[in-house]
């Protein structure tokens, strides 16, 4: 990546979840520690796919849950609730690897609690959209204040709820 702003997979995920959350995250306003959903996610991470070589960090930018043979990278999620965000997080990993010359990789989102997985591929049109998303992310995190809080279904389970609405 040719830019000085490091965009992580989590930032791409938050972009699709909530742009305000993305801003909080980038500005190091953290409230996730005590959140129940986060605790479940961590437990799942520790107990799933125990024999795999987990958390492959590339350039301190993307953190792949694990890679299996046949060049398939895996991202583990606990629910399909915000699947679009998960899909774009994985597409970002594929995009990032493609930029580094590795374009024979595909992705998979695993839902161990649901015993399901979804295949993710990076299409040509995704590359264009990804570039727009990355440019938008840079604009959002460069703002001095976050976007206005707009209530949505996920807000009630979000760690930042009090900060946004109370
Ligand atoms: S509470 Fe809602 S608006 Fe606030 S950061 Fe979370 S998801 Fe975004």
TrEMBL record:
Would the keyword Ubl conjugation be found if you checked this record's keyword annotation? no
Highest taxon of source: Bacteria
Q: Give the note describing cofactor binding and stoichiometry.
A: Mg(2+) or Mn(2+) required for ssDNA cleavage activity.
Enzyme group, top EC level?
hydrolase
Reported EC number(s) for this entry are 3.1.12.1
- Keyword Metal-binding in annotation: yes
Q: Which Pfam families match?
A: Cas_Cas4
Positions of the DUF83 domain = 8-166
Q: Which keywords accompany this UniProt record?
A: Antiviral defense, Exonuclease, Hydrolase, Iron, Iron-sulfur, Manganese, Metal-binding, Nuclease
Cofactor(s) required, per the database record:
Mg(2+); Mn(2+); iron-sulfur cluster
Say which family it is in.
Belongs to the CRISPR-associated exonuclease Cas4 family.
Cited function: CRISPR (clustered regularly interspaced short palindromic repeat) is an adaptive immune system that provides protection against mobile genetic elements (viruses, transposable elements and conjugative plasmids). CRISPR clusters contain sequences complementary to antecedent mobile elements and target invading nucleic acids. CRISPR clusters are transcribed and processed into CRISPR RNA (crRNA).
Q: What is this protein called?
A: CRISPR-associated exonuclease Cas4
> What's the source species for this entry?
Anaerovorax odorimutans
């Amino acid at each position: 990546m040719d830019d000085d702003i490091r965009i992580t997979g989590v930032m791409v995920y938050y972009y699709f979840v909530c742009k305000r959350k993305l801003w909080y995250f980038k500005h190091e306003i953290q409230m996730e520690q005590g959140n129940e959903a986060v605790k479940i996610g961590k437990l799942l991470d520790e107990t799933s796919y125990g024999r795999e070589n987990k958390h492959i960090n590339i350039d301190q930018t993307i953190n792949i849950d694990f890679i299996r043979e046949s060049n398939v990278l895996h991202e583990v999620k606990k629910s399909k609730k915000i699947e679009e965000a998960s899909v774009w997080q994985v597409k970002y990993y594929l995009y990032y690897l493609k930029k580094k010359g590795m374009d024979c990789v595909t992705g998979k989102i695993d839902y161990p609690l649901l015993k399901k997985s979804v295949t993710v591929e990076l299409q040509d049109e995704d590359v264009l959209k990804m570039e727009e998303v990355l440019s938008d992310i840079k604009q959002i995190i460069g703002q001095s204040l976050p976007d206005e809080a707009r209530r949505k279904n996920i807000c009630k389970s979000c760690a930042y709820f009090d900060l946004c609405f109370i």
